[in-house]
Amino acid sequence: MKFGVIKERKNPPDHRVVFSPKGIKSAKERFSEASFIVEPSEVRTFDDNEYRTIGIEVSDSMEDCDVLIGVKEVPLSALLPKKKYFFFSHTIKKQPYNRKLLKAILDKNIELYDHETIIGSDGFRLIGFGKYAGIVGAYNAFRAWGLAYDGFNLPKASELSDQNALEKALSKIEIPSIKIVLTGKGKVGGGAKEILDAMGIKEVSVEEFLQNSFDSAVYTQIDVLDYNKRKDGKVLGKTDFYVNPQDYEGDFMKFAKVSDMYIAGHFFGDGAPFIFSREDAKSKDFAIRLVADISCDIDGPVASTIRSSTIEDPIYGYNPHTETEVSYKDTEAIVVMAVDNLPCELPKDASEGFGEMFLEHVIPAFFNNDKDEILERARITRDGKLTKRYTYLQDYVDGKE
């Protein structure tokens, strides 16, 4: 089985890669039947020579590969017919801008596996860059605080080499006695928590956070039932929330009344209540001064996120009374950090971590007859058609949706 690690061709350039040199070396050690070719790239965070040094072939020719692995969407002109491809296709939610991509994949008889569709038997995703979004998002939250309130000046995360460098930079600043609420206990929330813990910020329980004042910075990490409640007052557990989100209403305002910073690292499902609305943000009791929206759903559950921001210009202000964007220095503004491609700021660490997950969950499936049905669940197209699991995309492909 020959795997090809393809170059990233999408603009703006993405420096990440699925397999670092170290990752390929580990894969070859575990699976002697696996061989790898790396396509040359001038933007990849790992130089071509780093692959050559450990004996990995670097070549422009990918035609002999069975499986081609990338991060972002592959341009239509670069798609090789009759190959297996892994990349984030951004098609499974019927994204209009990528309809032509999925159609081309079908026309070229390509077998597509989207990184988002690589799930376990429980339906949860097995691989992703979420942890690194959380790490960079939390770092950017404090960078934004320093810029907005003239407290300190941190360098951009993209100017630093790795997570250790981020933590070292954060160790040099003095954090005021603010209260930070973090939503989400998945990979994104876990990444953000790593940064908060590395900074030595004390974690407190929900009860302590809501009821007490503190002489130093503290945070609480909350899950869905901490900030949502059933309309009938019953407490039935998280599964009920995921199955019946329409039976719940938001209960985040109790946190908004006592928090200075909000780091949004949650997953937002269809039908779930908004975390805070535009009307909530207008309340005189709404105390949050800065929102780091790692999840970045535009006009969604976090009302202050009215657009995504960029790595180059990551911060803007939201005036809750006029519901408009203003300078983040405006005294009435909620400071917003809503960069939608945060892992790109930490490409080496993100690539290493992603490759470890890909090696653990995906590569073995090619050599064990897919006994855990990882490939079977993830496969979107085959033989020029949508697979049974993804036939709901046919109208989208046909341009009817």
Present the secondary structure layout.
Layout: E1 2-5, H1 21-30, E2 35-38, H2 48-53, E3 57-58, E4 67-69, E5 84-87, H3 99-107, E6 111-114, H4 130-149, H5 163-170, E7 179-183, H6 187-198, E8 202-203, H7 206-211, E9 218-222, H8 224-227, E10 228-230, H9 238-243, E11 248-250, H10 253-256, E12 261-264, H11 278-282, E13 290-293, E14 315-319, E15 324-326, E16 334-337, H12 347-361, H13 374-378, E17 381-382, E18 385-386, H14 394-397
Parallel strand pairs: 1-2, 1-4, 2-3, 4-5, 5-6, 7-9, 7-12, 8-9, 12-13, 13-16
Antiparallel strand pairs: 10-11, 14-15, 14-16, 17-18
β content, as a range? 15-25%
Based on CA inertia axes, which overall geometry fits? globular
Could you tell me how far the N terminus lies from the C terminus, measured between alpha carbons in angstroms? Answer: 38 Å
Number of helices: 14
Helix content: 25-40%
Arithmetic mean pLDDT: 95
Strand arrangement in the largest pleated sheet: 8-9-7-12-13-16-14-15
Largest sheet: 8 strands, mixed
- Computed Rg: 22 Å
- Low-pLDDT parts are none
Counting DSSP E segments of at least 2 residues, the number of strands comes to 18
Structural class, by secondary structure, is alpha/beta
Structure, briefly:
This protein has helices spanning 21-30, 48-53, 99-107, 130-149, 163-170, 187-198, 206-211, 224-227, 238-243, 253-256, 278-282, 347-361, 374-378, 394-397; strands at 2-5, 35-38, 57-58, 67-69, 84-87, 111-114, 179-183, 202-203, 218-222, 228-230, 248-250, 261-264, 290-293, 315-319, 324-326, 334-337, 381-382, 385-386. By secondary structure, it is α/β, with parallel strands linked by helices. The protein is globular and about 65 Å long.
